């Protein structure tokens, strides 16, 4: 029973509503929950009246934030995760990298990982703030497509909340925020909470215009099945990604020439055989690190198990794909 409670606590955590008039306190709380940033007044004679409440459900953090004063938030380093801000009142002007957007009750601002960002927040603006773990959101995308997402989803910096798909996502977000605010919320149970977690990520991805093109491309590939020999090669990689495959080995196993195998991968998969192999290995390594305790395994052992002989290159590829280091995933688990 105690173990079950511990699992639920690690999956779900909630911050009770905090009100403060101190700029440093508001900066610390919001930085701790969402992303580290600096907070300053953007007008003279301002007095803060901040209110913050938030909850984390697995890979999703959702909260309400209002400052009661004209303030500016600046994150000068690259963001680690995806953030979406939905104003319930008034507006906020934001930038992410070189892109700008104004968030209003009909248009959300979207902040992408790997770029610095900032917000000019109006005094009367209260926002629902959502954070998606980069690694988990991109794994959800691969799950929806049914294949590794070699190319990233082209997410726009603003989200039209009047579109049908966005309205459905916004309704789910509102329900989820109300639910996490209750003391005895059903989302505290990992099984129920996981459904909400996946629904919110799926809804966000489905509302992205570029996702439709990716889904159509994936459907076209499935509508015209690849040759049997390619399917055999893919199965070999999926079943034994830890083996030290070369393109020559794979071609020999399936009984065709190297050039024919490379052309088949290019036409039907979109990447060379060894690039596909690396992506599968990264996914397996990520799954094992996420399911292990820090004292039970080491990053080096997991990397070697899944065919990565160079630890530095493994760490770089892992961070490229999942947005965090392997050690971060292991500690988080």
From TrEMBL:
The UniProt record lists the keyword Transcription regulation: yes
PROSITE patterns: HTH_ARAC_FAMILY_1 (PS00041), HTH_ARAC_FAMILY_2 (PS01124)
Gene3D superfamilies in alphabetical order: Homeodomain-like
Annotated GO MF terms: DNA-binding transcription factor activity; sequence-specific DNA binding
Domain HTH araC/xylS-type, chain residue ranges per copy: 231-332
Xref: Pfam families: AraC_binding_2 (PF14525), HTH_18 (PF12833)
UniProt superkingdom: Bacteria
Keywords for the protein's UniProt record, in alphabetical order: DNA-binding, Transcription, Transcription regulation
Protein name: Transcriptional regulator containing an amidase domain and an AraC-type DNA-binding HTH domain
Organism of derivation: Mycolicibacterium rhodesiae (strain NBB3) (Mycobacterium rhodesiae)
Species classification: Bacteria, Bacillati, Actinomycetota, Actinomycetes, Mycobacteriales
């Amino acid at each position: 029973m105690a173990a079950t409670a511990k699992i639920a606590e690690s999956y779900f955590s909630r911050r009770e509503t905090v009100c403060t008039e101190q700029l440093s306190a508001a900066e610390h709380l919001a930085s701790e929950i969402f992303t580290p940033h600096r907070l300053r007044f953007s007008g003279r004679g301002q007095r803060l009246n901040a209110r913050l409440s938030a909850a984390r459900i697995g890979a999703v953090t959702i909260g309400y934030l209002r400052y009661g004063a004209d303030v500016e938030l600046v994150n000068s380093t690259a963001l680690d995760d995806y953030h979406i801000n939905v104003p319930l009142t008034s507006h906020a002007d934001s930038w992410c990298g070189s892109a700008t957007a104004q968030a209003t009750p009909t248009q959300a601002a979207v902040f992408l990982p790997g770029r610095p960002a900032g917000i000019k927040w109006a005094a009367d603006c209260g926002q629902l703030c959502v954070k998606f773990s980069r690694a988990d959101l991109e794994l959800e995308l691969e799950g929806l497509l049914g294949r590794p997402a070699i190319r990233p989803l082209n997410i726009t910096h603003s989200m039209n909340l009047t579109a049908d798909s966005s309205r459905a996502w916004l309704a789910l977000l509102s329900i989820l925020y109300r639910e996490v605010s209750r003391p005895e919320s059903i989302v505290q149970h990992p099984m129920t909470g996981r459904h909400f977690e996946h629904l919110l990520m799926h809804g966000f991805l489905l509302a992205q215009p570029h996702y439709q093109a990716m889904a159509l491309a994936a459907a076209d590939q499935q509508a015209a099945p690849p040759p049997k020999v390619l399917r055999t090669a893919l199965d070999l990689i999926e079943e034994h990604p830890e083996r030290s495959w070369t393109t020559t080995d794979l071609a020999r196993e399936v009984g065709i020439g190297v050039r024919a195998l490379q052309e088949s991968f290019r036409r039907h998969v979109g990447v060379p055989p060894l690039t596909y192999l690396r992506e599968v290995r990264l996914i397996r390594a990520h799954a094992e690190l996420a399911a292990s305790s820090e004292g039970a395994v080491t990053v080096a052992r997991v990397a070697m198990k899944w065919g990565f002989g160079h630890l530095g290159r493994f760490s770089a590829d892992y961070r490229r794909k999942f947005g965090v280091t392997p050690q971060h995933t292991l500690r988080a688990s």
